[in-house]
Amino acid sequence: MPGLAANDSSPPAAPPPLRAKPKKPTPAALGPEADESLDNPDLGPFLLKQARGAMVSGEGGGTARALEFAARALERRGEGAELELAMSLHVAATIHCGLRRHADTIPVLERAVAVRGEEWSLAAFSGWMQHPNSHRSYLAEAHVQALQFDEAEKLCRKALEIHREHSATASLEEASDCRLMALILDAKGDYDGALEHLVLASMTTVANGRDIEVATIDVAIGNTYLALARFDEAVFSYQKALTVLKSARGDDHPTVASVYVRLADLYHRTGRLRESKSYCENALGVYAKPAPGAAPDEIAGGLMEIAAIYEALGQWSTVAGIEAQMGVLYYMIGRCADSRNSFESAVAKLRASVCVQLFKIDEAAQLFEEARAVLEQYCGASHPDTLGVYSNLAAIYDAMGRVQSYSCLDVEITYLINI
C-alpha cells in the first residue's frame, strides 16, 4: 500500500547485475605494476606502434609512457624480441633529443647499441648508413650537447670509419657526420682539423647538388678561417655563401642577415670600421622587415651580435635601440627574464648617453655603473657588452679626474680582453 511504502525504512532492493562482457584493458590504461599483462607477446609490438603514432601526433607524455611499457614487454618476451626492443629504444632516444634531455639520451642509446641479435645488427647497419638521425650521430650529438667532447669525438670518428668502409662515395650522411666532427673539433680548439672536415663536407654536399647546405657550410668555413686569422679566405667564404643565400632565399631572409653580421664582425676585427658599419646597417635592414616565417629568437640573436659591434664602436644610442628591439622580441617568445634584462640595459645606456650630452658627467657615471652591474650579473665580466660599458665608464672616470678609478678599470679591461 502507498502508506506503508512511505513509512518503510528498509534499504531499496539492489538492481539486478548486468551481464555485459567485461572490457579488455587497453595498453594505455596499464600501469607499470601490471606485470602479468606484459607477458602477452603481442603487446610489445603494439605498444611500439602506439609510441610511434603518439610521437607523430606530438603527445609527448603518452609517447614516453607507451615506450616504457613497450620496453618492459619486450624485456619479458626475452629471445626473439631484440629488433623491436632496439627500435623502441631508438624512438625513446628521439623523444629525449627532441625534449633536449640529452643526459637521458646517452644511456638509452648506449643500451640500444648493446642489444644483440642478427636482425638488430642488420637494422643498426641500415640505420647507421641510411638515416641521418640514427644512433650513429644521436649519441655523438648528445655528448656534444652535454659538453662531453672527447667521448663525442671518439664516437664520431667511429661513424666516419664505417662510412669510409661501407658507404657509397659522397654520401650526404657522411657529410653530416663530417660537419658534426668539425663542430666537435672547433669546440676543442682544433681549428685546422675542423676546417679539414668542413671542406670534405662541402665537397660531398656540392656533389649532391645541395646549394643551400653548401652555403651553410661555407659560413662555418668562414668562421673557422676567422678563428685562424685567415681573413681574406674568410671573406671569400662569406661572400660565396651570401651570393647563394640571396639567390635561393631572397635578400630579406634572416640567414642573409646572419652572413652580413659575420662580415661586419670580421671587418671590425681587422679595423675596417666603415665596411663593418655598412654590413651592420644591411643586417638591421633585413631584421627590421624580415621575410615571413622568420623566428623571433633568431632575429634577437642576430640583433645581439650587431649590438656588440656597435657597442665596440661606441655608438650607444644605436645599441640601446637594438636592445629595446631585443626586449620586445624576447617578450614575444615568452623569455621574460631576457626581455627585462634587455630593457634595463637599453634604458641605462640611453640615460647615460643623454647625461653625457648634457655634460652631467657625475650622473652619467652613476648610470653607467648601473649598466655595468646589470651586465656583470646577467652576461658576465668578459662579455663584449660588459667590456663596452667598462670602456665608456673608464672614459668618464678620466673626464672626472678620478685617476685611481680609471687606472683600476683600465687594468681590468686589459686583463679581460687578453683572457
UniProtKB/TrEMBL annotation:
Pfam families in the cross-refs: TPR_10 (PF13374), TPR_12 (PF13424)
PROSITE patterns documented for this protein: TPR
Residue ranges, annotated region (Disordered): 1-44
Keywords: TPR repeat
Start-end of each TPR repeat: 215-248
SUPFAM superfamilies: TPR-like
Xref: SMART domains: TPR
Keyword check for Glycoprotein: no
UniProt protein name: Uncharacterized protein
Keyword check for Thylakoid: no
